[in-house]
Write a structure and sequence with these properties.
homodimer; about 220 residues; alpha+beta; Arc Repressor Mutant, subunit A; 2 domains; two-stranded antiparallel sheet; about 50% helix; DNA-binding
Chain lengths: ~220, ~220
DNA sequence: ACGATAATTCGATGGAGAACGAATCGTGGA
DNA sequence: TCCACGATTCGTTCTCCATCGAATTATCGT
């Protein structure tokens, strides 16, 4: 009896130390092998073996830079799997649901886009103001949406016609609602970070709004943070 | 260092015998403990232990019927996780991609709705003929869609306002495109099976179109199977 | 009431792999 | 050139758990 593909991937995610490393990478940043070892609470040798298996299994991608090795998630599909696993994990352990005021539930990065209450509110805002339309099964910008993104100085045109999906919905594991993912979602989060509407909070995935961000979200999206 | 929730779920899926059992349940049907043991190629005692862990972990739900124990997938979220795992698994092992003519790629059941080329074509048809609309982030039936479902004798009204999402998109792991899921997708597949447009093919997930089905898909959806 | 079948529990065995210490490789800086 | 530091490889130990045989419980049919 041969082992099905889902088992090999499940086994990779199923080891606590590896799961901690994957969790640490869920914010989309790249971390070195040593950093990941510390996050998982194991020695560097052990982490090295784990990272080799994860990379070999396609869950991580590796970038060498000098004597450092930077690891990041292998792609959108990997992030999607981890998101759905978190969604399923939350359903049972009501522990995290019991603290709905945690910074991570307010706003966090999910791979390369925005999640949490702010992420959901953002999609609601784009949707409610008619900035996004659906052409068949695809999400597109409406004329008013195109105008909004031009005001934000986001070059949405360059995001189209790429292999990656322009815009898609991602189910938020903490809010149980959709937020915006895909190239457009990634561009938005990048914009928020570049312009310091949001700043990363230490080593967690949490994102804290700045005063400038509060003004921006109110002005452009009618969201009061 | 505590084990994160995703690790416990990953470990459940990561065992080959358990993965085979989950895979066997992906068609949405309920199977007995003995049937699952045979599918996984293990003894009943071992299967019993595995099934207890899967049920305890929320991946399976259990229904007692006399001296039989019927197991089925724990819910839509579980099916979603397994689907995304398959999607990720296919990306690496090009083995299955090399045989695009397999019956399972033509048409199969994905939890409780239709997947494969036929599932994708069905969504394309509904979409292309304007039978479905998107109200914000939700999928809804258009007036013409309501009419079509009435012709098919599917009581779509009773599917609304339930806890389960009325209609949603599910990413097809073999076609890399969306097909229709949610309550509406489940009702459609149920209709196809009840009216024998499609019949199950042995113990696999594959679905074979009948002559009546070929006529029906052509007449109502303009799909030539 | 009594066998027959489904399923579970218990106990023992074995193997896979996670962990770490020590040594080695590779790159960058002085 | 030599040292410092990040990362890997090797060998060993040890824990976890999948597996099965045997016995037990539960339910159906007669």
């Amino acid at each position: 009896m041969e082992t099905p593909p889902i088992a090999s991937i499940g086994a990779l995610v199923g080891e606590p130390a590896r799961a901690l490393m994957l969790d640490a990478l869920m914010d989309g940043r790249a971390l070195t092998a040593s950093e990941l070892a510390d996050r998982a609470g194991i020695t560097r040798q052990t982490a090295s073996a784990h990272l080799a298996r994860l990379t070999d299994g396609g869950l991580l991608s590796l970038e060498r830079q000098g004597r450092h090795r930077y690891f990041r998630l292998g792609g959108e599909e990997v992030a999607a799997v981890l998101e759905s696993l978190m969604l399923l994990g939350e359903r049972r352990s009501s522990a995290a649901l019991a603290r709905p005021r945690s910074p991570e539930r307010c706003a966090r990065s999910c791979y390369d886009h925005l999640a949490g209450r702010l992420g959901v509110a953002l999609l609601d805002s784009l949707d409610g103001q008619g900035h996004i339309e659906t052409c068949g099964t695809r999400l597109l910008l409406s004329p008013s949406g195109e105008k909004l993104f031009a005001q934000l100085d986001i070059d949405w045109r360059s995001l189209q016609h790429r292999r990656r999906s322009f815009a898609r919905l991602c189910l938020d594991w903490s809010e149980r609602r959709h937020h915006l993912a895909g190239a457009l979602g990634a561009a938005l989060l990048a914009h928020f970070l570049e312009n310091r509407w949001l700043v990363r909070s230490g080593e967690t995935r949490a994102l804290m709004p700045t005063d400038r961000g509060r003004r921006g979200f109110g002005e452009y999206f009618e969201i009061s943070v």
